[in-house]
Write a structure and sequence with these properties.
The chain has five helices and six strands. The chain is α/β, with parallel strands linked by helices. The strands form two sheets. A four-stranded mixed β-sheet has the order 3-2-1-4, covered by helices on one side.
């Protein structure tokens, strides 16, 4: 595995990739102390490519990520994360809408749990999912970070 750290406007990010796909993008504050495993190499082309695309995103120059992704999760989680990737830049959906898009209209809470376990933050945009009442709900980086990501996207749409 390869890894790298990235300073971003919303906090320090850890990027992890193998030779074929990006496996993780997480906030430092959310990580266990043993997240970077002995034997992993710092660097790598996919880590550098992910860092470059995230930088473009934060600068308002990228709306969609073009990276090979390989998140690890259950079949339900993988379906939930696939639907997240279809939410357009600058648009929000409710957990209930995401569940309906998955063909699981009664699974809004399970969708929230799956989104909470999303290993590819920002790249798989779980920050675009909000409560059915329009309020921001939990996010790995905190609700303030979720708000800042949504504001960044909305500013770029104007």
């Amino acid at each position: 595995m390869n890894y790298g750290w990235m300073e971003s406007p919303v906090g320090e990010l850890l990027i992890v990739a193998d030779e074929t796909a990006v496996r993780m993008v997480s906030f430092r504050e959310e990580l266990d102390s043993g997240t970077v495993v002995e034997g992993w190499r710092c660097g790598g082309s996919l880590v550098a490519g992910t860092r470059a695309q995230l930088d473009e995103y934060f600068r308002g120059r990228r709306r969609r990520f073009d990276l090979p992704l390989a998140p690890l999760g259950t079949a339900f989680q993988l379906r939930a994360w696939k639907v997240l990737q279809g939410i357009p830049y600058g648009v929000t959906r409710s957990y209930g809408e995401q569940a309906r898009d998955m063909g699981e209209p009664r699974a809004a809470r399970a969708v929230g749990t799956a989104n909470r376990r999303n290993p590819l933050l920002i790249v798989i945009p779980c920050h675009r999912v909000i409560g059915g009442d329009g309020r921001l709900r939990g996010y790995a980086g905190g609700v303030d970070v979720k708000r800042r990501l949504l504001e960044l996207e909305r500013r770029q749409l104007v």
